[in-house]
Amino acid sequence: MDPGLTIVLLGKTGAGKSASGNTILGRPEFRSKMSFRSVTTEISERTGSMFGKEISVVDTPGLLDSEFTEKIGDFCQDLLRSSRRCLFLVTLRVGRFTKEDQEALTTAMDVLGGRGLKKSYLLFTGGDELEDESLEDFIFAEGDEGQLPNVVQMFDGRYHLFDNKSDDEEQVRNLLLKSGHLKTEDQPDPPGTARSNALY
């Protein structure tokens, strides 16, 4: 079996972290519901096997819950100092980009630091809400001067979309492919791939 990978989900309360963790694992391991209060109140880790790879998924409390921010930052930095291969997913729900979203992204970048950011992807959740619109059309709806293109640029163009209401495992496979954690012969680069940035 391929060496393990640890995926850490970061974001504000209600951004779809727990649901995304369940999507990655293919089973309901994390409690997930729409809420203004953080359903996740501690850092929790679950492990599964998919695509011949052992994957540990780490769910975290909302980044804007100040009592947890330092603990989340310490966990991320400890992980970066370890020998574990890791991928950080900063979640952002599809919809209007708010001041709270910006604050959560800023906090995520603070807890990750420069090294962690290079191993991070911006994960848009709520893919079902786009209906017939592509993610790229949504991101660039206001042109290059909009807020979302700037956010994507902060991640050097590394982004992905999950529809957590779907059980299609291809969205997980594509994330692992574009992030360089799954190798397939002659696999074209999906949108949101930044090959110049090594993730490990």
Walkthrough of the structure:
Residues 179-200 are annotated as: Disordered. It comes from Dissostichus eleginoides (Patagonian toothfish). It holds the Pfam family AIG1. Keywords: GTP-binding, Nucleotide-binding. With 200 residues, this protein is of the alpha/beta class. It has helices at 17-25, 66-81, 99-117, 135-139, 147-154, 170-178, and strands at residues 2-10, 44-50, 53-59, 86-93, 120-125, 159-161. The chain has a six-stranded mixed beta sheet, with helices on both faces. Helix 2 packs parallel to helix 3.
List the helices and strands and how they pair.
Blueprint: E1 2-10, H1 17-25, E2 44-50, E3 53-59, H2 66-81, E4 86-93, H3 99-117, E5 120-125, H4 135-139, H5 147-154, E6 159-161, H6 170-178
Parallel strand pairs: 1-3, 1-4, 4-5, 5-6
Antiparallel strand pairs: 2-3
Query: Could you spell the SSE succession in H and E letters?
Result: EHEEHEHEHHEH
Major sheet: 6 strands, mixed
| Number of DSSP E strands | 6
Low-confidence stretches: 195-200
* Rg computed from alpha carbons, rounded to a whole number of angstroms: 16 Å
* Number of alpha- plus pi-helical segments: 6
Could you say which overall geometry the principal axes of the C-alpha atoms support? globular
Distance between the termini: 18 Å
The percentage helix is 25-40%
